[in-house]
């Protein structure tokens, strides 16, 4: 979606003055960052819901919440660990 | 001059598109999860208990989303603090 957005916007450049064009580029960069963040939150929630929410309760209880927090933290740890592992393998 | 675009209109269109995209992602992730949890044996229509379970499930999914979001933000802050 991001690249489609970027190309759609670059097509608009001809119809914008230089100042507006720069302002729009900055705006798009910010929105892309936010969209990437939101996509990541959706992905983590998708994954951690299956691991942590075994029963639908009137509210999330404390153990649900602790599990979700741990799930996100350990997923990020896993990402870093495997990045390092792949990096070391590549250097061999 | 008439063919110049209103930059604020472009920004609003982009924002609307992102909100829509976000909503679609939320819905397409949430529906299968809540269906699986709440509609155990599909009948001729959703009954009262299935409906109330689905409503609660959607609320809990949103709670989970908020918890995940806050955790991720906290982690990003910690990671960027370490770098500097």
TrEMBL record, chain A:
State the taxonomy lineage.
Eukaryota, Fungi, Fungi incertae sedis, Chytridiomycota, Chytridiomycota incertae sedis
What subcellular locations does the record give?
Mitochondrion inner membrane
- InterPro entries named in the record: Tim10-like (IPR004217), Tim10-like_dom_sf (IPR035427)
Which keywords describe this protein according to UniProt? Chaperone, Disulfide bond, Membrane, Mitochondrion, Mitochondrion inner membrane, Protein transport, Translocation, Transport
> What sequence ranges are listed for the domain Tim10-like?
26-87
Q: Which domain of life is it from?
A: Eukaryota
Report quaternary structure and partners.
Heterohexamer.
What does the comment on domains in this protein's record state?
The twin CX3C motif contains 4 conserved Cys residues that form 2 disulfide bonds in the mitochondrial intermembrane space.
The membrane-topology field of this record reads: Peripheral membrane protein
Question: What is the protein's name according to its record?
Answer: Mitochondrial import inner membrane translocase subunit
Output the Pfam families linked to this UniProt entry.
zf-Tim10_DDP
Q: Does Cell inner membrane appear among the keywords?
A: no
Function comment? Mitochondrial intermembrane chaperone that participates in the import and insertion of some multi-pass transmembrane proteins into the mitochondrial inner membrane. Also required for the transfer of beta-barrel precursors from the TOM complex to the sorting and assembly machinery (SAM complex) of the outer membrane. Acts as a chaperone-like protein that protects the hydrophobic precursors from aggregation and guide them through the mitochondrial intermembrane space.
The entry sums up its family as follows: Belongs to the small Tim family.
> Do the record's keywords include Disulfide bond?
yes
UniProtKB/TrEMBL annotation, chain B:
Q: What is its main location?
A: mitochondrion
Q: Domain Tim10-like, which positions?
A: 13-72
Indicate how the chain sits in the lipid bilayer.
Peripheral membrane protein
**Gene3D superfamilies the record matches:** Mitochondrial import inner membrane translocase subunit tim13 like domains
Q: Which InterPro entries match?
A: Tim10-like, Tim10-like_dom_sf
Q: Does the keyword Membrane apply?
A: yes
Assembly and binders:
Heterohexamer.
Q: What is known of its domains?
A: The twin CX3C motif contains 4 conserved Cys residues that form 2 disulfide bonds in the mitochondrial intermembrane space.
The name under which this protein is listed is Mitochondrial import inner membrane translocase subunit
Q: Which organism is it from?
A: Polyrhizophydium stewartii
What gene makes this protein?
A: TIMM13
